[in-house]
Write a structure and sequence with these properties.
The chain has 135 residues and is α/β, with parallel strands linked by helices. It contains 7 helices and 4 strands, in the order βαβαβαβαααα. 42% of the residues lie in helices and 17% in strands.
């Protein structure tokens, strides 16, 4: 099974994992890494390297919170054909990837349209509540 690794600032990784598991149930092959104040690049690199040891031949998807942030920059060092990184992810994408890996064993196919999927699920829902269209 494809390993899911959440690497984010503060407690975001644990929080979004908790939200996902509330919706889809407990998950295996799912690791969280919290980058805290004072953590250096080497600390994050060691944590990611350890988490990637759980990845089998199916590979891993590393999800980071902010493009250009420490989690993203360190995760970029590990990207390969079997290890993909998506940055700026959201809960709908996390759920899609987590459920999708149960069927799709090719990490490249699993992540093929990830940025588009995440973007499709960010919207201004204000007009939906009022029954009007945005201007």
């Amino acid at each position: 099974m494809i390993e899911i690794i959440l690497c984010c600032h503060g407690n975001m990784a644990e929080g979004i994992r908790s939200a996902a598991e509330l919706i889809i149930g407990p998950q295996e092959h799912f690791t969280t890494i919290s980058v805290q104040p004072g953590d250096g690049l080497e600390d994050v690199r060691r944590s990611l390297k350890k988490a990637l040891q759980n990845a089998g031949e199916d590979g891993a998807v590393i999800l980071t919170d902010i493009p250009g942030g420490t989690p993203c920059n360190v995760a970029a060092m590990f990207v390969s054909e079997r290890i993909r990184m998506i940055t700026g992810f959201n809960l709908p994408l996390l759920i899609k990837l987590t459920l999708g890996r149960m069927i799709e064993k090719d990490v490249l196919k699993l992540t093929a349209n990830a940025p588009e999927y995440a973007a499709e699920h960010v919207m201004d829902a204000s007009f939906m509540l009022k029954g009007t269209q945005p201007h």
